[in-house]
Design goal:
2 copies of one chain form a homodimer. The first copy, chain A, is α/β, with parallel strands linked by helices and 412 residues long. Chain A has 2 domains: 232 residues, BirA Bifunctional Protein, domain 2; 62 residues, no CATH class. Chain A has an 8-stranded mixed beta sheet with strand order 1-5-6-11-10-9-7-8, with helices on both faces. Chain A has a 4-stranded mixed beta sheet with strand order 13-12-14-15, with helices on both faces. In chain A, α12 links the parallel β12 and β13. In chain A, α1 packs antiparallel against α5 and α5 packs across α10. Chain A is globular, with a radius of gyration of 26 Å. At the A-B interface, α1, β1, β2, β3 and β4 of A face α1, β1, β2, β3 and β4 of B.
């Protein structure tokens, strides 16, 4: 039998899980205090829902669950059976699609605006050489049923509060609007049909600079006049909300200004929100505002989200406005572990040693210590000194020998 | 697209998740205070591990994950491709197999005795008409590396403490030993090869009585003399640890007596542990003590476990003693919800209403209230009275209108 976990998944050690649990509790408490309520949905979703969810590249990364029994035999009877015919459900690749399904399934029992927490695992069959996990945790908050930009503001303030409380320092919230992105491409004369391809190239602006973007546009044989007009927008440096006023609808610009100003005011200037016109976000289901959090010194986003006003409508006959913000928990965990994160004020863990003939009494003694300590009852080892070293290495803070008068002794 | 969750899985409503989270925290805290440390393992396991795990009937209930890409095409090129060839991993059906793999994978980083918590989802393709879920939560504690019966005692005391703390009342811990079961069958002259079949029939003793067991043994054409000798054991009523002294090794009897007596002493007589010779537990991997918790008035077990001294040896070249106790969280949750469970001393949840022109200030006001309350900031609705009713129905305890002098008003 195989001792290693399956490719792209991880076993977490006790000291890691202790920190993961603590961080997740801090995030959940922050979200609950902000009036969000938690739901859970199954990890398995109907294949039709997954396949039609406009999840962009993620749709190629779905783990599919094999049909069973008669359904499987009948599929296998088909000579040229396809992957999709062998499976009628799969593991979810995000929490937004299950939430949209959930809302449509349970809307009569839910209050709107529905402010909702999801903290759970998702699955993507990423190529492991990219160093990405195939099973990972996301911490999402979403607001369903509020079409005002106030929802974006609340998500940004609440998500950044959670990031602050877990101890992430020095980050920037980048914000854009899918409609601004479209307006820019359309204004400069590109063909609407090329928007997705253009977005993928423009998204690299941070890495390759405007000259790199220009070169890639030329390599891909886009219209020369459109390229010139597009690059021309940058001749005075980065695009700003003021400099794009002529390029797109004033409503889009004013919406972003309102979000940036209100977050600034409500956070007393502590949360930096930056208009980032080259921000794209991969999912096809976003319809308006998109945002992510970039941690200084780390590439890639630690959180991301946006508005998806049409996704719930795929389940219901009416469109319902919705916007969400997802913390990539594994990124946060990775960054904090690199910084040697320690839980503040952790309850102390001690061992109580017993001898065979006093086990029941030692159990009672240990139980009485549990208001103050985490207490593990352990048979007294023959080599106590060596064992005490092992305890220290394993996050114990001290010990007591049952029956000896001096009680709990803390290490160090 | 389909709004309902896939067959056998459930969406949980906010008020349910609030209670589930609270109960899971109580259980986890109880376990941590008892010196157990939490780990997590992936939900996906290698198919070979699952298939060879001696999980009894559960092995027929495994959800298999379809191979991908070239591996899948190559499997499909085989004309008579089988279910197993289409898949090289599956969803775990319990937490014991993943734990055994985990221990063998990480043992150099772990302390023994390894006292470990797992609280996580497992998957079984149960027939939905049995009212069973296909995705459900188990809360396990295990002790690895302790071959003394003290481990069983600690698991029983810790698990029942968790059950007490979540508010489960009136239950019995049933205990048996697989070796006693085998000794009884062997003593009465049955063929060893029939042990599994015999166990399945004997397991029904509680439901069908000794006459029912006799009838089933006869229907299945077991040896008449063996049946008579077996039934003869019951002529003075139930079997007791004293009455089976001649039937099996004294060690097995003394072990159970030691467990029962020590739990009684350490719990001051509050935890009833009952020798139950017909207790079987389904998994094939159990090697010694087995136990479960039966809640008065509810059929089926709310918790179950036992000793599995050979399972980790399938991964390592040495056998490592191990014993575990698993709370069936869905059973506990179901029972408590039937009893209208309410979270004690829940932090109060209120709404703060704002008007468009004072949103930023209302956010600051709400933030200041969050030490005392969970606070959801909501645009003031046109029909405030009607909306307040909705808040009350949705577990809110009160509200405040930003800008009005009278502050927080609690309902009722």
């Amino acid at each position: 039998m195989k001792s290693t976990p399956v490719k792209g998944t991880r076993d977490y050690l006790p000291k890691e899980v202790e920190i993961r649990d603590y961080l997740q509790n801090v995030i959940a408490e922050t979200y609950r205090d902000a009036g969000f309520v938690r739901i859970t949905t199954p990890i398995i979703e109907d294949a039709v829902n997954l396949d039609k969810s406009e999840g962009g590249e993620n749709l190629n990364l779905i783990f599919r669950v094999l049909k069973r029994g008669k359904k499987l035999s009948s599929a296998l009877n088909n000579e040229n059976v396809t992957e999709k015919e062998l499976s009628d459900m799969g593991l979810r690749y995000d929490l937004t699609l299950p939430l949209s399904r959930y809302f449509s399934n349970n809307k009569n029992e839910l209050m709107t605006p529905f402010k909702v927490i999801q903290m759970d695992r998702v699955y993507r069959a990423e190529r492991p050489q990219k160093g990405r996990l195939r099973e990972f945790m996301q911490c999402d908050i979403d607001i369903i049923g509020n079409d005002s930009r106030d929802a974006e503001i609340e998500l940004i303030l609440t998500t950044t509060k959670a990031l602050n409380r877990v101890g992430l320092k020095n980050y920037t919230v980048k914000i854009n609007d899918r409609r601004i992105l479209k307006s820019i491409f359309s204004y400069t004369g590109f063909d609407d049909a090329d928007n997705e391809k253009l977005a993928i190239i423009f998204d690299k602006l941070d890495k390759i600079g405007i000259d790199g973007v220009k070169a890639e546009l030329e390599e891909n044989s886009f219209d020369k006049n459109a390229i010139d007009k597009f690059i021309g927008l940058f001749e005075n440096g980065s695009l700003t909300l003021d400099s794009i006023a002529d390029v797109c609808d004033a409503e889009y610009v004013n919406d972003l200004k309102y979000i940036i100003d209100t977050v600034d005011k409500a956070s007393n200037g502590t949360i930096p929100v930056e208009f980032t016109p080259s921000l794209v976000r991969g999912q096809g289901y976003y319809t308006g505002t998109i945002f992510e959090v970039a941690a200084d010194g780390y590439s890639g986003a630690v959180a991301g989200g946006g508005r998806y006003d049409n996704l719930i409508g795929k389940f219901l006959n009416e469109d319902i406005p919705a916007v969400g913000f997802s913390i990539g928990f594994e990124r946060i965990f990775g960054i904090l572990m690199e910084q040697n994160y320690a839980i503040p004020d952790r309850k102390k863990r001690i061992a109580v040693f017993y001898d065979k003939d006093n086990y029941a009494d030692a159990l009672v003694y240990a139980e009485n210590l549990r208001n103050e300590y985490m207490v593990s009852v352990i048979a007294r080892p023959k080599k106590l000194g060596k064992f005490l070293n092992k305890l220290e290495q394993n996050e114990f803070d001290g010990f007591a020998v049952f029956g000896e008068a001096d009680g709990v002794k803390l290490f160090g």
